[in-house]
Amino acid sequence: MTVPLDRHYSVELQVSAERVSRLRRIVAAHLRHWSLDLHVRPVCRALDELLTNVHRHVGDGNTCVLELRWTGRHVTVSVADNSARMPRLLPAGGGLSRVMALSDSWGTCRTTDGKVVWFTRYAEAPRTAGLLPHAPLPGVRTARTVPLAALV
């Protein structure tokens, strides 16, 4: 199976509770379309954490940009917002600790307008079963056809 080198989805939005669930469904649909069904749940749970943090710490009135990218080997999700306040790991867990547990790598980066928080998961293209029939295993007999008259 040939995999395109890069699949990408990006959206700018104002974060609210109802938009978080809508974006989760959109991201899940993209992952399924890209045949990455096994990654839907962990990616969407980690994305929930990033968007909830924007909603909680940046506020409803501000916009953020969500980007989803699959290179054929890795899925990367990033959320950029216009707050200069950098996120941090809390000792109690949750938040970025959950993102860290659900991903292979994650990080934050300051930008001229605020920051970007991102995570990646290893997600190689699924292998498909061949369409050609396989030869029987050695020692396996082939089925014999029985004439109809013998069955009566």
Task: Give a structural overview.
This protein has four helices and five strands, in the order E-H-H-E-E-H-E-E-H. With 152 residues, it is α+β, with helices and mostly antiparallel strands. It has a five-stranded antiparallel sheet with strand order 1-2-3-5-4, with helices on one face. A hairpin with a 4-residue loop joins strand 4 and strand 5. Helix 1 runs antiparallel to helix 2 and helix 2 packs antiparallel against helix 3. The protein is elongated and about 85 Å long.
In short:
The protein has 152 residues and is an alpha+beta fold.
Largest sheet: 5 strands, antiparallel
The computed structural class is: alpha+beta
Give the overall pLDDT as a whole number.
83
Spans of at least 5 consecutive residues whose pLDDT stays below 50 are none
Strand line-up in the sheet with most strands = 1-2-3-5-4
Order of helices and strands: EHHEEHEEH
What is the radius of gyration computed over CA atoms, rounded to a whole number of angstroms? 23 Å
Percent helix: 25-40%
Question: What is the tally of beta strands?
Answer: 5
Shape: elongated
Strand content: 25-35%
Give the quaternary arrangement of the chains. single chain
Termini separation? 49 Å
How many DSSP helices?
4
Give the SSE map.
Elements: E1 7-14, H1 17-33, H2 40-57, E2 63-70, E3 74-81, H3 96-102, E4 105-110, E5 115-122, H4 148-151
Antiparallel strand pairs: 1-2, 2-3, 3-5, 4-5
